[in-house]
Amino acid sequence: MAFDIDMIKKVYDNMTSRVDAAREIVGRPLTLSEKILYSHLWEKTPSQMYKRGVDYVDFAPDRVACQDATAQMALLQFMHAGKKTVAVPTTVHCDHLILAKNGAEKDLAFAKTQSSEVFDFLSSVSNKYGIGFWKPGSGIIHQIVLENYAFPGGMMIGTDSHTVNAGGLGMLAIGVGGADAVDVMSGMSWELKFPKLIGVKLTGKLSGWTAPKDVILKVADILTVKGGTGAIVEYFGEGATNMSCTGKGTICNMGAEIGATTSTFGYDDSMRRYLTATGRQDVVDAADKVADYLTGDAEVYANPGQYFDQVIEINLSELEPHINGPFTPDRGTPVSKMKEEAAANGWPIKVEWGLIGSCTNSSYEDMARAVSIVNQAVEHGITPKAEFGVNPGSEQIRYTIERDGMIAAFEKLGTKVFTNACGPCIGQWDREGADKQEKNTIVHSFNRNFSKRADGNPNTHAFVTSPEMVAALAISGRLDFNPLTDALLNDKGEEIMLKAPFGDELPKRGFDVKDNGFQAPAEDGSGIVIAVSETSDRLQLLAPFQAWNGKNIIGAKLLIKAFGKCTTDHISMAGPWLRFRGHLDNISNNMLIGAVNAFNQKTNSVKNLLTGEYDTVPAVARAYKAAGIASVVVGDHNYGEGSSREHAAMEPRFLGVIAVLVKSFARIHETNLKKQGMLGLTFANEADYDKIQEDDVINFIDLVNFAPAKPLSIEFVHADGSKDVILANHTYNASQIGWFVAGSALNLIAAEA
């Protein structure tokens, strides 16, 4: 039986009347995305039509999921909210704090010792507040959600940008910061600007070396890392129904890499098969009763141009395997063009590592297709030229593929099988030799390939591709190897052509597991006491941020003018810093240390305007804070791209940054700034970015008139006494301005409690 089956049935019971009401109000057929949005309104039955990309709307998500790195801050905030238990089904998953180094058994044991304080804290808080807890080693949050919690037509939020993975089972699953999660866990509404809609029509059928991963790699190449911002991507067409459920999950997962609010597919037989195989026939029975409401109306898919804001069409029968990168997931190269692209750009041809797994590609089908390539290498005596690493997506996946001989097959090639956890995908990889910072190439089936993300080496050229292509490229040892046309030499000097990969969509003998790692919460957690040591360097109870004094902010200093791409990895790095995710003071020592200073083109080197000396970004921010001086961060386009980590907003807030002024924001980061009581602003004229100088003193001259749809005037006083007054736009509505006034959204929740 599925978790929370009664909740799921209630969603379906309400869905038909709410969707019917919405269809009547809107006056036309509805997309799947609209059906889910309108059936999850906080007001319950729709009473009006909402304008895409304009109206802020209150929603009532069905559930919340948190991973261990972000859960620490989310739960610390929830404790501050003063509630007795969570208002909706909620889970915590321990998958980020496990370093990949020696292999699953040793790495897991080390993590349990090194992070025992954090795991114990998360376990006890979950137990107290009615939260399901998935122990270290149980698996990656998004794979576990797909296996256990996702359901067609549902809405969930999660404190990880790849929460969108659950769209593979027909949900609207959206990545958020911890403060948003606290709202829903506390029984409050969740606010979102009503998204625009991008339709992707898939025709034809995948075959040969082309995999679901190639669909999203192609879409990323088309839309770029910001092309989906503020939009839901809805996939449909015969190509969609011909694809496996976990393949759909892969596509939705990497929707985060185009900035999309989320991605989804309509309910179909592949979802029925997957739900049944994972022990949720009761969900199938309930969903089948409302099946027409769990996909877009037929008229929508017949004439998509009339109903979507943008339509993309991809013929899967013609789609070629892609290899995206380096340094950005939207730089797409068809495998047939890689040889010339690599040569033209000077990319290292030798592949050092092939990494398979992550929340994006760690399903049974993914592993089976990759193993089909591995088995060919073993059978024909081909010695792999690169090292291999594998992260199974969950203990259920690991146990099942071990039973079916896949683990043994990987190990014949010398593969390191790491823990069922994120590992190298999020920088939790102790890669030997990475400290030498040598120029090299790795290939992986992960979702992101930003500079330094996997191993901390800025010279590692990381390329994203499907698991089967990872296997082929790692075995060949060459980035420009094309398995569709190129042969390999075996140990006897014979030329061998690899056959196209094949893998069962689902295990023929069914899934199996001995201990899935789940801990149910106590029925009554009121007597459980949560203890956090004052001397801990891992955990720190939160103090409320100071409320705005109602006056204009005068005399602020420029902290940094960030140049070019500035992702959440640049603002708050992961990797070794993950250990401090529950201690705001300690983790703030990584604030913006990866951002490039536009004035000297260096990282972590900014001018302290109090001394005239250059120092690290956190040190200068702390100096301004100690002097009672507010500071400002300036950035370029798509600022805050990447992870949902709210630490990228909380750290600047903690260190006295009052405003972030950029050309454009990534959606989640802009919301996180608002939630923490900061000013997230955009240039009314992007060229004004160039007017900002290193020694500027900044005055917010009309902040006292802060109001919805009213730009703010900001005065930049230069070192020579000259001034520029810049107009800054914002997207704050009245309630969001209330967060700023109160000092944070959490301050309001705590006051109400």
Automatic annotation (TrEMBL):
Its EC number is 4.2.1.3. Gene3D superfamilies: Aconitase, Domain 2 (3.40.1060.10), Aconitase, domain 3 (3.30.499.10), Aconitase, domain 4 (3.20.19.10). Transmembrane segments: none annotated. Residues 34-477 form the Aconitase/3-isopropylmalate dehydratase large subunit alpha/beta/alpha domain. Its cofactor is [4Fe-4S] cluster. GO terms for biological process: tricarboxylic acid cycle. InterPro entries: Acnase/IPM_dHydase_lsu_aba_1/3, Acoase/IPM_deHydtase_lsu_aba, Aconitase/3IPM_dehydase_swvl, Aconitase/IPM_isomerase, Aconitase_4Fe-4S_BS, Aconitase_4Fe-4S_dom, Aconitase_dom2, Aconitase_mito-like. SUPFAM superfamilies: Aconitase iron-sulfur domain, LeuD/IlvD-like. The keyword Transcription does not apply. Keywords: Iron, Iron-sulfur, Lyase, Metal-binding, Transit peptide, Tricarboxylic acid cycle. Pathway: Carbohydrate metabolism; tricarboxylic acid cycle; isocitrate from oxaloacetate: step 2/2. Residues 558-686 form the Aconitase A/isopropylmalate dehydratase small subunit swivel domain. One of its GO terms (molecular function) is aconitate hydratase activity. It comes from the Bacteria. PANTHER family: ACONITATE HYDRATASE B (PTHR43160), ACONITATE HYDRATASE, MITOCHONDRIAL (PTHR43160:SF3). This is Aconitate hydratase A.
